[in-house]
Amino acid sequence: MKLRESASITKFNWRNFIWITAVHIIGLTLCWFYFTWQALIVFLVMHYLTGMVGITFGFHRLLSHKGFKTNSFIQNFAAFCGTLACQGGPISWVGQHRVHHAFSDTKYDPHDMNLGFWHSHIGFIFNRRADLNDVAEVSHYCPDIARVKYFMFLEKNMILIQVIVGLSLFALGGVLGGATGFDWYNAMSFIIWGVFLRLVSGYHVTWFVNSATHKWGTRPHNTNDDSRNNWWVGILAFGEGWHNNHHAQPRAARHGWEWWQFDQTWIMISTLKTLGFITDLKLPNRGSKQEISLKSDDSTSPHSSTPELTSQRKAV
Ligand SMILES: [Zn+2]
Ligand SMILES: [Zn+2]
C-alpha cells in the first residue's frame, strides 16, 4: 500500500461535525421522552444488525481482511447493515481500516493514539484527511471493494438508506403501537431508539476499538504497534476488543483466541460455518510464539505482500 499524496492534507469537516453532534443531542435527550419496550427491542435488534452483522462481521472481518468467504446474499446483506451504521460506506470504511493496519500508531494512522484519546476516539472524524474524505481517493486503498458496483451504490447512498430505514421504522412503530389508529408516540420512540440512540451506541462501540484498544490492555504479542487486548471492549464491541490478537494476525477471522476471550462475532461466523455458509476460513496460527508475535513477518497479513508499504512504513 502506498499512501496518497493527499494524506498530508487535513481539513475540518463541518458536515461530519454537525451530523455527529446532532445525532448525539437528538438521541441522548429525546430517548428519555420517547420510550416504549417495543422501541428497546428495536434498538437491540438494530444495534446487533448494524454493529455486529454490519461492521465487525461484514466491513471488518469479511471485506477488510477477507478472513472468510460467504455467499453473495450474506455478503451483500452484511454490507447493507454496515452502511446503516453510518460510519461511511464499505469503500471508505475498508480503505481507512487498511490504512490503519498499514500505519498503526504512526502519524499516518487515521486515528493515531499518539495524538491523544480524543483524537483517536472521535476527533479524527472532524479533522478528516483528504485521502480518506473522498471516494475516488480512498478507493485506491481498496480497489477490490471499490470495483463492486453494489458497494459503490451503498457508499454513495448511505444517508438516503438511513432515511428510508428510519421512516420504515417510524411507520412500523405507528402501526404496531396503535390498537385503533396510528400511534405517533410509539412511532417517534422507534425512530429515536432505532436510529438516533442506536447510532450513538454503535459509534462509540466502534470508536473504542480505535481508541481504548490502542491505549489500555495487555500485549501478549509483540506487534510493531501499540494494540492491546482489552476485555471490556471485547464484550462491548462483539469480540473486537482482542485487538492485539487481531493486529498480530489480521486475517484471522477469530479474534478471541482463548476460550475465555468472548468473541460474539466469532460465534456468529462459526455458527454460519456449521450451517455451511462459510468457506475459506482463516484461523489464528497458534504455532510458535515467534510466528504469532511478529506482525511484519506475518504471512497472513493482507499487507505483507506489498513492498511499497514496507518501505513507506519504515520511512514513517
Ligand atoms: Zn488497531
Ligand atoms: Zn482490522
From TrEMBL:
Top-rank taxon: Bacteria
Subcellular location: Membrane
Record organism: Fluviispira multicolorata
Domain Fatty acid desaturase: 37-266
GO MF entries: oxidoreductase activity, acting on paired donors, with oxidation of a pair of donors resulting in the reduction of molecular oxygen to two molecules of water
Feature: compositional bias, Basic and acidic residues: 291-300
Pfam families to which the protein is assigned, alphabetical: FA_desaturase (PF00487)
Gene Ontology cellular component list: membrane
InterPro entries reported for this sequence: Acyl-CoA_DS, FA_desaturase_dom
Family classification: Belongs to the fatty acid desaturase type 2 family.
Protein name, as recorded: Acyl-CoA desaturase
Transmembrane regions listed in the UniProt entry: 12-35, 41-59, 159-178, 190-209
Region (Disordered): 291-316
GO biological process, one term: fatty acid biosynthetic process
Protein keywords: Fatty acid biosynthesis, Fatty acid metabolism, Iron, Lipid biosynthesis, Lipid metabolism, Membrane, Oxidoreductase, Transmembrane, Transmembrane helix
Topology in membrane: Multi-pass membrane protein
